[in-house]
Design a protein that fits this description.
Shape: flat
Helix content: 40-55%
Largest sheet: 8 strands, mixed
Number of strands: 11
Radius of gyration: 23 Å
Order of helices and strands: HHHHEHEEHEEEHEEHHEEEHH
Number of helices: 11
Length: about 375
């Protein structure tokens, strides 16, 4: 076996062994057997909510176990292909085997991190809101760049992305926008992105070509499903209607169909203009408000998330979680984990996995430390 292939095989085996430990493999198999047996119970759906919860747990566990088994099978097949190619001197087939091993390694690394997504809302869909900071054109442009970055990250990982609300900047970019990102573990992956993001660059809008610093904030909330109860007093919510802007045809620009809800006790504001009718936007806005208030509750209950809550209080110096420097050098650095890269264009094109993975591992570690104390 070629030394590089042997090294890749050893790395993957180590990752899969770690993944099995994190999944608590034998108890997980027994748990899946129990869930499968309960699914066969004809009285299961007498309690619809309990049945749905059981089915979600079964699907999650089945997916994790199947993923490990598929990677182990793929590893065996790829190593066998590499050995045969090496014996026959078939370099093309050997490269195919290397590529397959790299794909399995990437899957194993991501699966390791997903095994850490054990928060009560980690598996839910997510709302991601971007707001520009002070600075006018510069900050609006930066907020638009962040919106594009997260949209590209989400689509690259198979998530659905819907623009729920957008307030365009006066010249370029956006003042604010909200995305609905739908797919497994969307909130779990994105929750660590909440905070202030700082950009340093030579401004394309400055004739003097001076270096500018811009800020934008990102907030992430879990979509609240039927298993989570959030009680909101309607008298605490102020409703405003306004004319929607942006794409959507003639209808969307001629009626006051957009909805803005303000939860007065917490000063939480959400808006939706994606639907064609005021009714659709009102329904979606209430879902967004429930998600935001649930996120506030999670922050109060999780000591590890307090730093994230503090970071949202001001869009400016001293509160940023990540810096994106394009001039005078190229560097993106996360100020919480110290993960950094010089591939700034790759990051702005949505390559965020290294940052998300490190923040997730750090957050899980801090949570465990807090619980042990």
């Amino acid at each position: 076996m070629r030394p590089d292939v042997e090294a890749m095989k050893a790395d993957i085996e180590q990752s899969l062994a770690l993944l099995r430990r994190r999944l608590d493999w034998d108890p997980a198999l027994r748990k899946l057997d129990e869930l499968n047996a309960r699914v066969e119970d004809p009285t299961l759906w007498d309690d619809a909510e309990a049945a749905q919860a059981l089915m979600r747990e079964r699907t999650r566990l089945q997916g994790q176990i199947d993923a490990v088994l598929q990677m182990e099978s793929g590893l065996e097949d790829s190593v066998m292909l590499a050995d045969m190619a090496d014996e026959e001197g078939d370099e093309a087939a050997l490269e195919d085997a290397r590529a397959s091993l790299k794909t399995i390694k990437d899957r194993a690394t991501r699966a390791e991190l997903e095994a850490l997504l054990s928060g009560e809302a980690d598996g839910n869909d997510a709302y991601l809101e971007v707001n520009s900071g002070a600075g006018g054109t510069e900050s609006n442009d930066w907020a638009g760049m962040l919106l594009r970055m997260y949209s590209r990250w989400a689509r690259a990982h198979g998530y659905e992305v819907d623009l729920e609300a957008e307030e365009s900047g006066e010249q370029v970019g956006i003042k604010s926008a909200t995305l609905l990102i739908t797919g497994p573990n969307a909130y779990g992956w994105l929750k660590s992105e909440s905070g202030v993001h700082r950009l340093v660059r030579i401004s394309p809008y400055d004739a003097a070509a001076k270096r500018h610093t811009s800020f934008a904030s990102v907030g992430v909330s879990p979509v609240v499903d039927d298993t989570i109860e959030i009680d909101i007093n309607p008298s605490d919510v102020r409703t405003d209607t306004y004319r929607a802007s942006g794409s959507g045809g003639q209808h969307i620009n001629k009626t006051d169909s957009a909805i803005r809800l303000t939860h007065v006790p917490t000063n939480t504001v959400v808006a939706c203009q994606a639907g064609r009718s005021q009714h659709q936007n009102r329904e979606q806005a209430w879902k967004m408000l429930r998600a935001r208030l649930y996120e506030l509750e999670l922050q109060r209950r999780e000591a590890a998330a307090q730093a994230v809550a503090d970071a949202k209080t001001d869009i400016g110096w001293g509160h940023q979680i990540r810096s994106y420097v394009l001039q005078p050098y190229q560097m993106v650095k996360d100020l919480r984990t110290n993960v950094e890269t010089s591939d700034t264009q790759g990051v702005l094109d949505g390559d965020l996995d290294a940052f998300m993975g490190a923040a997730l591992a750090l957050r899980v570690g801090e949570t465990r430390d807090a619980r042990s104390e």
